[in-house]
Amino acid sequence: MTFEKLGLIPQILSALTPLGYTKPTPVQTKVIPFILEGKDVMATAQTGTGKTAAYALPLLQLLSKKEHKEKSKRALRCLILTPTRELASQVGKSVEAYGAHLDLKSCTVYGGVKLTPQAKKLQNGVDVLVATPGRLIEHIKQENVTLSKVEMLVFDEADRILDMGFWDEVQGLLELLPKKRQTLLFSVGLSKSVKRLGEISLKKPLKVEINNQGDLARKVKQVIYVVDQDKKSALLSYMIGSQNWHQVLVFTKTKQSADEVGQFLHESGLKTLVLHGDKAHSERTKALRHFKEGSIRVLVATDIASRGLDIEELPHVINYELPGDAEDYVHRIGRTGRAGNEGVAISLVCQEEKNVLKEIEKILKYGLKVEFYKGFEPKIWLEKEAKKGTIRAKIDHEKANKRSIGIKKKRESIKESKAKKGKK
Ligand code: AMP
Fold it and tell me: Does ligand 1 come within 6 angstroms of the Cβ of 29?
């Protein structure tokens, strides 16, 4: 893909050459054509993905094609909101560089510096304003700028804007902005509040996820079984044995746990080797070789094996315990489903690990469905079910009682009315 093919005009292309941008990054390829069509976008992209150019290049192009309506003074038409002064300053510089050959004026405002020089620039009129919410509101109050002519709005790092407590300010700003506008929301993560902001500010947006951990992990089928810690090893050997799996990589959190699980599986009759940092180099390479060749069925390993172990057709990865660092989960499950093959990653999660699971979901940016393995359901759940069973039985009993009392009463009243009729 080239920037030219994305539909960018020569004045913009010529500004990219000195910056060393030879081809667009994935986020740029995905969103630039949509933004050029005037559509709203909601994108999750980290800093470093080229997200600034992804929104700024097409917006500058759209602005340059429209005539300034008021000849005497430029009206603000594009507002870019950022959480911090550092990001505002960085974005401001990029906007200037990208628009070097366009007849557009931009300005950057943030707190912690004098208001007056910023006010003067704003009063002279700008097309593009990069601002932090607090300082922007100060300028609006002082009537240095108005948002009534804004046609394009960008939230850059929306999650951080909201994390920093700017929700009320953002809502206030949305009320001042024209309803008819193009809005782009860029965020590192998709928290509830970011989604809410998307709902109130965007119209039918194109949704884009770039290079995040969730994308990488999505290729692998993930299964989570909630199980008590003391039932994990039994479940593990049962799963491997009953389904006749022949190449299973099992991850534990500690070396000790790896040794214990390895011993248990070995005693259960499954050919198993253990790989962790305390093993001699020769033992580690031997374990790996045997596992790759298929002469052992199970390799139990700590996280040293979660990066770099590339076996093309590894079908099963089991997390006997979730990793201490949530990011390692992605590396671990990335050991399966490689080279386009289907993979399954199963995690055995006990009550105490539920917080780690939440951390993992945050990194993946989506929730994971939890299940119980029949015959290995956790004690808490079994007790709850038993309680529910007793309550259900009690309710049924009371209902039956009520019903029989009703029937009895009905019968008595029929008898009474018959007796009355007889008397007559
Ligand atoms: P950003 O994610 O917008 O903070 O950009 C990260 C860095 O990548 C910045 O230094 C940009 O100048 C640079 N950059 C953005 N797009 C490209 C591209 N297409 N080619 C090379 N560098 C780029």
Answer: no
Could you read off the pLDDT of 346-403 as tens digits, one per residue? 999 999 999 999 999 888 878 888 999 999 999 988 888 777 766 666 666 677 667 6
Residue 314's pLDDT is what? 75
pLDDT tens-place string over residues 126-142: 999 999 999 999 999 99
Residue 43 phi, psi dihedral angles, 5° rounding? -125, 135
Count CA atoms within 13 Å of residue 128 on its CB side: 27
Tell me the CA–centroid distance for residue 159 and ligand 1, in Å: 20
Please state the atom number of ligand 1 nearest to the C-alpha of residue 51: 3
Say yes or no: CB of residue 47 within 6 Å of ligand 1: yes
Diameter over CA atoms, the chain: 114
Residue 162 predicted with pLDDT over 70? yes
How far CA 366 is from CA of 112, 354, 363, in Å, comes to 37, 15, 8
**215-377 to CATH, choices 2.60.120.10, 3.20.20.30, 3.40.630.40, 3.40.50.300:** 3.40.50.300
Pick the CATH number of 4-211 from 3.90.226.10, 3.30.420.40, 3.40.50.300, 3.40.190.10: 3.40.50.300
Domain ranges in the chain are: 4-211, 215-377, 387-424
Cα 354 to the center of its chain, rounded Å:
18
- How far is Cα 187 from Cα 195, in angstroms, rounded to an integer? 10
Q: Which residue has the higher pLDDT, 67 or 45?
A: 45
CA of 337 to the centre of ligand 1 (A): 30
What pLDDT sits at residue 115? Answer: 93
Burial (0-12, 13-18, 19+ Cβ within 10 Å), 65: exposed
Single-letter amino acid code for the residue at 76: L
CA distances from 194 to 36, 144, 253 (A): 24, 29, 33
Q: What pLDDT is stored for residue 407 in this prediction?
A: 67
Residue 49: name the closest of 183, 264, 212 by CA.
212
pTM of the complete model beyond 0.85? no
Closest residue CA from atom 14 of ligand 1: 50
CATH topology identical between 4-211 and 215-377: yes
Decide: 134 and 166 in contact? Cβ < 8 Å: yes
Model pLDDT, residue 310: 52
